[in-house]
Amino acid sequence: MALLGDSSLPASINAPRPRAKGALTSRLGRRFVLLFAVCALLPLIVYATLSVTRVSNQVRSVTNNSLHFAAKNSGMGIAARLDQVANDLTLASDLVQNWGGEGAWSGGEALSRQVSEHCAGIWLVKEGHVEALCGELELPKVSKTKAELAHLATGKKLLQIYGDPAQLVMSFDLDADDGETTHVLALINGDWFWDPQELRGVNCEFACCDLAGRVLFHTCRDLPATQIRAAGVTSGASSGTIDWAIDGEPHLGRFWLAFLQPQYNLDLWVIQSRSQADAFAVDREFVRFFWLTAIGTMLLVLLGSLVQMRRTLDPIVTLRDATQRLGRGELDVRVSIESRDEFGELGTAFNDMAQRLQENIAQREQSEQELVASRDAALAAVQAKADFVTNVSHEFRTPMAEILGATEILTQIEADDDASVREEFSGIALHGAQRLARLLDDVLELGRVTAGTKNSVDIAANIARAVAGMPPELRARIDCNIDSDLPTVLSDANRLHETWSRLLDNAGKFSESDTSIEVRVTLAESRILVDVTDYGVGIAVGDLEKVFDPFSQVGRDQMVNKAHGTGLGLTLARSTIESSGGAISVRSEVGRGSTFRVSLPVEMVAAENTTQS
């Protein structure tokens, strides 16, 4: 009986199947995973997302509110500064009226002490006459529209933008007793008016522009009017939030309209902008920490749940897979369920069943294999015999037909007929008989079981004798290149001589009469290599395996251009070489010739004697 963890079983049998693949991808496993994802992971993810979103929205809302209050305070600060300048202008007007009544137009020292902090200069203009009440600057040349003149006519202060860079000019009209209008102009001190320490919010950038988007003052490195308009500051709303980039860094901004039109006939936009990296640094840190905590928690929950699900489902999936593999014929399958419950007992029963089934089927397969082997051997013998008889019969038919045809014609020739005719058909009959005799010799040679008597053979002399026995026209084409001092081989000298003759004859039949045949004999380690090369028709790649088959001739059209011979020469050559412990191979290229290589082992006795000497 096969026990769980039995060490007598192969390691591949005892090894459990990969559990994650079965448990978590099974139908039951997918249900557990889906249930876990819906009931645990999904609510956790939703809760985490809602929490992060709510905190982020609160942080953004607090930041927007702080920017709004900063913009509003800056606008109110600008309005308060303008009120101070307006009071200075009123004071200057009162002094001018008093001095005028006394007949004096100046008293600049007293006025300068009062307004020098707020105004860079104050001028009095009447009937083209300009008098500097304080300051040493030139009078700003500002023009007034009809609307601005109408505003001054109401007795209110007029605020205008002058020059580049932009400066603020406030003017006021005094009605004299003589009916002529006296203009009082004040150039606001920019260093005092645009105080960054008071106008900027905490960690914010400050900017102020008119309704057209012209930038009057900013604390940024570069803030063109086009960027103000593109951000939507001048869109018409009295306040709003903008997302833009200042100095190449994303900012969150808030703009607010300092409503100065009724009092000074000029409205200004106040902008407070803060870097998003700075504004949301706390939020990003919270989100990062929160998600790291949430992901860590989810991973721990996921890992624990998957481990528990796998431990629960693994025995079921393991038994299912093992049953399927056993059904597919994998009789060596075993399960390894390390559990002291019903699953463990079920695994033991399964292994016992699989072991018994494997032993029974192995016995049956062994019997079937023996029967099949016997049948195949018998069929192969019958087929080989049938093929041999067919081939021999086919090869015998041609010379027999020559002999019978020539003999029949000879019997019909009259005694007084031409003797040359009888000689011609006698030659045909003789040629057929000789061919039939050669075929019989080759068939008998092919049927030999033993290789004959083996003795030491001098390869160089054996090849030289074979070359000398070739016809003169073939012998003249052979070019021999044989290394000197070659060792001997152990073989049948006569059959080896016939092998060289067959290889040379084969090279001559399949090459042109004006091409050479090369014979190369070399020593490679403990083997003698004999290469016979011709430059003839060559052999196709698909025919290389057929050249050594009995009665097979390749390289020519066998229907119209069959070479002379029985097709047994290379078969007999291979039989002789292999009986001597060697091997024969061929490499060829169509149209460029072929090379037959014979590899024979050196005679070991001779090699040992040489070593001892």
Give the distance, in angstroms, between the N- and C-terminal Cα atoms. Answer: 66 Å
Q: How many helices?
A: 18
Note the main sheet: 5 strands, antiparallel
> What is the residue-averaged pLDDT?
79
Radius of gyration: 59 Å
Low-confidence stretches: 1-20, 556-563, 606-613
In CATH's first tier, which class of the domain at 451-612 applies?
Alpha Beta
| Quaternary organization | single chain
Strands, count: 17
Question: What descriptive keywords fit this protein?
Answer:
five-stranded antiparallel sheet, disordered C terminus, elongated, Heat Shock Protein 90, 613 residues, disordered N terminus, alpha+beta
In a few lines, what is going on in this structure?
With 613 residues, the chain is of the alpha+beta class.
Write the topology of this structure:
Elements: H1 11-14, H2 19-23, H3 27-102, H4 108-115, E1 119-126, E2 129-134, H5 146-153, E3 158-162, E4 167-175, E5 181-188, H6 190-193, H7 196-199, E6 205-210, E7 215-218, H8 225-230, E8 239-246, E9 249-258, H9 261-264, E10 268-275, H10 276-279, H11 281-327, H12 342-412, H13 419-446, E11 455-457, H14 459-468, H15 472-475, E12 478-482, E13 489-491, H16 493-509, E14 517-524, E15 527-534, H17 569-579, E16 583-589, E17 593-601, H18 604-612
Parallel strand pairs: 12-14
Antiparallel strand pairs: 1-2, 1-5, 3-4, 4-5, 6-7, 6-10, 8-9, 9-10, 11-13, 14-15, 15-17, 16-17
Helix pairs in contact: 3-11, 11-12, 12-13, 14-16, 16-17
